[in-house]
Amino acid sequence: MAAHEDTPLLAVETEPKSTWNERFYQFRSSKTAISFVVSLALFADMVVYGIVVPILPLIAKERLNADPALVGLLFGTYAFGLLGSTPVFAILSDRYKTRKIPMIIGLLGLGVSTIFFIVAENFWQLMLARMAQGAAGGASWTIGLTMIADAYPPDQLGVAMGVALSWNGVGFLVGPAIGGILFQYWGFAAPFVFCAALAFIDLLAQLLVIPATPKESEDELVSDTDDVESQPVVRVKPSIWTMIREWPIILCSLATFLIASNYSSIEPTLGVFLEEEFHYDASTIGVIYMALVIPNVFMSPIAGYLSSRFGGMNISGLGVLAFALVTPLIALPRSFWLESLSLVLCGAAGATAMTPILPEMGHHVTKLGGGAFAQVYAIFNMAYSLGMLFGPIAGGYLMKHFGFFRTMLTFGALLLVFAPVIIKNKRL
Asked: Which CATH superfamily groups domain 27-213?
């Protein structure tokens, strides 16, 4: 009787465990899990990037006696690392059909590079640490976006990219505020210890997820039959060199470069402007920076949805035009609230301009035959990193010689000249 009763009890205990393991495995390989870990990676990368925004200008100026031009160069070195690592991560990922290993390497590098800031004793060591951050960020941006493109069908890609970019916006939203507060109350090392811990948490999440199988190009979809006439038309997988000669990719890259230049020109100059004009401390400057990023959290998913409905370049063109018009407004206000309002408008326009570019580039790869998502997003990252390099250096130089208003007016004018090009070529 006892033996007869033990059997169903064992069965009842085993079944839930098996079901739980199966469900957990399914979740690890689901689109939701992939979107979550990519969003977390972009969040962590942008926290690490943004956490130094309110404190690096102060450190460089007060401890190292660096002028605004050198501060701009310090911010721009992030782009050197991003530019150098991006194509390497992309080519290896597409060639060996692996996404997980490059992401893990990138997150390890992100954690280690933040420690470099603590031990840096001069300006050039700070530059090296900032460059190492950029190199690590190449994995999150290139491979992370590719993981989303692998997991989602084209009609869902715009919204998926928008959600990921919104978390990127959240990272940059909280990064400067966290950096300013930690620096103000717990000292120089505190922000970087926080960043290292965040990178470690993200690394654990990446170890759990099972990425989707990389999408194959049409040249790999060959029938098993021996009848030559039954074979599908072979289309060669596009290489990075092929794609950089495609006009839609060129147009998206130019737009990315200019938008990134505009954003990154604000980072080293606004803090100096606020400190000189209003004598704000690091924590207050960090809070004001939040106004630039808050709209990204909300506008990125909206812009992704609108791009799926009305065409990516239609929405991006309108965003570029608005971004051009509102950029000079940043330099006009003489109060905390008016400055915050102008930054909100600027952030909303920038998110509307940038978000549709990612699914547009992915759609064009699909038209070319697919199989090269990592490489096309490497092109995006290279264009973005060039903008991040140009913006702070040019912005720092212009502010030193012509002031903050003329600096913002110049970058707004560059976008205004380019906006008609996007609108004219709205059908890619």
From this structure: MFS general substrate transporter like domains (1.20.1250.20)
